[in-house]
Fold this sequence. Notes:
By secondary structure, the chain is mainly alpha-helical. The protein is built from 3 helices and no strands. It starts with a helix and ends with a helix.
Amino acid sequence: MADEPQMTQNTVETQEKKSWFPPLRWWQGLAPVVQYSIFAIGGVLTIILAIFIVGFIIAIFGDPVPTSQRVGAIRDILFIIAIFLMVCIVIAATALVLQFARLADTLRGEVRPMLDNTREATETVRGTARFVGKNVTEPIITGAAVLAGVAVFFRELGGIRRAIRKKPAEQGTDTDDTE
């Protein structure tokens, strides 16, 4: 029993730690390519910021003439990095366009046969419905109509027969009542 409060105390402490210090793993649900891209962009931005800070510190505390040459060199480095990033963006955009073209070609190659198969299945179902309607349903309906007509004929025939039988009986009953 002495262990129970200690276990609950540990779980409370663990819960408090979780609530106060959430894990910084929000990127784990992303695709690996996206994760690498985020880290690469962050790295490049960190390098650019570090270069900017170093250049700023040199400009403030350094001699103006050598500092201008150093700032020019840093500027040239930043231009090279910017051009490299633009080349990367163009390559990525080209790859994206090629992938979209490939996707469109795949869809055209796979969707069209599916639509053709669906059209053929629809025509088959339509033909089957016509066949069943003509060769199964019409004869059944015709036979049921003939049987219904025969049943009505015999019912009416039986009704006439009953009416003929009742007439003489009713006449005999009428004569019995008058006497």
